[in-house]
Design a protein that fits this description.
Layout: H1 17-24, H2 28-35, H3 43-56, E1 63-68, H4 72-75, H5 77-93, E2 97-102, H6 107-118, E3 124-128, H7 135-142, E4 147-150, E5 161-164, H8 166-179, E6 185-189, H9 195-210, E7 220-222, H10 227-238, E8 246-249, H11 252-264, E9 274-279, H12 282-285, E10 292-295, H13 298-313, E11 321-324, E12 327-329
Helix pairs in contact: 1-2, 1-3, 2-3, 5-13, 8-9, 10-11
Length: about 350
């Protein structure tokens, strides 16, 4: 069908990309890419599709979408709270609203994404904590729907990513513990379906190898994201005949549970056993003792992701990959001399 041959439908309030695609004789993917100014759609076709969309009453919602698991507020409240605050603030600065929805992983989550896409309630998504073979990212790529990912991912594709150097983060923690004279170092990692866990484990193994230290596979555990999970993982480690003298924990909330388990065993944190976390949440600074941790630039991650997505929606050139370097915040949980 030639551009001039299409006959747009009458104005409606619920026009979808599929409606526009049928009107212009193009695929939904082509319509989406045209409306978002992708270069692989010719200028003439882009303008034609935009004109038909206007005539049908289609207009951007100026709303970004963010979907998180329903248990997130309990499991990782500090991280989600800070990231949401950052995204909401930056979205407002850019003239956008933020629609937040919740869904468990699996088929229901995909249905939520499809419902928001097809109902035209959002213009783009921010995807947090990529998973292995992440179905969310695959869906958005298939739909050619605008999005940005916060976190490293193993999926290939031309989509923007904003993340911290998770491998280097593990290096910093291990190097610090080694500098304190420790060799029996354990790792309590995040759930294995998160790609973060893979990168952090890689960094841990590399750092141990570079320090000429053996990796005891019994000292490497995956954990859920709650304090209770951390408590149970620490109990597992401390029950071993040859227990570790230092523990790297890949999440601050989990690390707080680890600290409680260590103290319940009558051990002194920072002396008998050293502990490091990840995230640098506010509670880490006020733990007893204060928790040594990797500083995650959470506010900057959310802010940059939002800036990239809104620029993409305006048809502007954007960065495709932004990496923030980590830093180690040393506190008493790994160096009791700081009390002196």
């Amino acid at each position: 069908m030639t551009p001039g041959a299409s006959k747009p439908r009458s104005h409606r309030d619920d026009v979808t990309l599929k409606d526009i695609a049928e009107a212009v004789g193009k695929s939904v993917a082509a319509v989406s890419r045209a409306l978002n100014n992708y270069d692989d759609i010719s200028p003439a076709t882009r303008e034609h599709i935009k004109r038909v969309a206007r005539e049908m009453g289609y207009a951007p919602t100026d709303t970004l979408g963010f979907i998180m698991p329903p248990l997130a507020p309990r499991a990782t409240a500090p991280y989600y709270s800070e990231i949401l605050t950052s995204i909401t603030s930056e979205a407002s600065q850019q003239g956008f609203d933020l629609l937040v929805a919740t869904s468990d992983n699996g088929p229901e989550e995909e249905r939520v994404y499809l419902r928001l896409i097809n109902s035209r309630r959002v213009d783009g998504f921010i995807v947090l904590w990529p998973r292995w073979r992440d179905t969310r990212i695959k869906l958005l790529l298939d739909k050619h729907f605008p999005f940005v990912v916060i976190g490293a991912t193993n999926l290939e594709g031309n989509f923007p990513k904003v993340f911290e150097d998770e491998t280097e983060s593990a290096h910093l923690a291990v190097d610090h513990l080694v500098s304190q004279g420790h060799q029996k170092i354990a790792l309590i990692n995040t759930p294995p379906d998160l790609f973060f866990s893979t990168n952090f484990l890689t960094g841990f193994r590399d750092a141990m190898r570079q320090a000429n230290l053996p990796v005891n596979e019994e000292f490497i555990l995956n954990s859920g994201l709650t304090q209770k999970d951390g408590y149970q993982a620490a109990q597992n480690l401390l029950s071993k005949p040859d227990a570790p003298t230092a523990i790297v924990v890949a999440d601050d909330v989990v690390a707080l549970g680890v600290m409680a388990a260590v103290q319940d065993q009558g051990l002194e944190i920072g002396s008998d056993i050293l502990i490091t976390g990840y995230g640098d949440i506010l509670l880490a600074e006020y733990a007893q003792p204060p928790l040594t941790t990797i500083h995650r630039p959470t506010h900057l991650l959310g802010q940059k992701a939002c800036q990239i997505l809104t620029a993409q929606l305006r048809g502007e050139k954007t960065e495709n990959s932004v990496v923030f370097k980590p830093s180690l915040v040393i506190r008493q949980s790994s160096d009791l001399a700081l009390w002196l």
